[in-house]
Amino acid sequence: MTSRQKLWLGSLVLYAVFFSWYTDFGGPLTDAEIQAFISKTQDQNLGGNQSARGALLEFLQNDTGRQFLMFNAVDLAKNPPQKEGAPPDADAQTLIDLYMEHMIPALLSRASHPVVVGKSVADSLDLLGIEGAETWSDGAIMRYRSRRTLIDIIGNPEFYERHDFKLAGLEKTIAYPIEPRIYLGDLRVLLSLFMLAVTALLDAHLAHRYAR
Length: 212
Prior knowledge:
The chain is built from seven helices and four strands, in the order H-H-H-E-H-E-E-H-H-E-H. By secondary structure, the protein is an alpha+beta fold.
């Protein structure tokens, strides 16, 4: 095998390893997986109300096995309550940071990650059919490998312990998932283009060197 062939084969293998890690090939959640999650978390109350838990279970039952993006609109609390485990007089951002200390490693280790995170720069520019949603302080979009990954994260008891920090740090929030039809920021696409470009450049260099 020539050096150029090894180069292309190596790039293909590296990409295949990333692709297999970044993609859930397990298909939709099974009834057994959902029931195991329900049993494991039956004493927990996501979001502080049963309607949120009901929406979550419906989301799991309608699984397609694909990745999804979670859209988050966030308004930080002006005077958050004191929480056990947080510094005295912790502000809202400190409480959110305590929550994210758990979430970021949990996400990254499961091929899930932030896509967009930013501060609001204006009140809502388009608002219809909802009250109290004029003002938001932050927004974020998170990528999840699959709904199976989601229940793996929130099935951890530490998630609910840390989730209390998030709830305490928020005045209000809306979070809802979508399955993207168009997602140009998909790392599988970006990495394939990057590796193709780099490998082609290295291949051209090798071809030029051997031609001399």
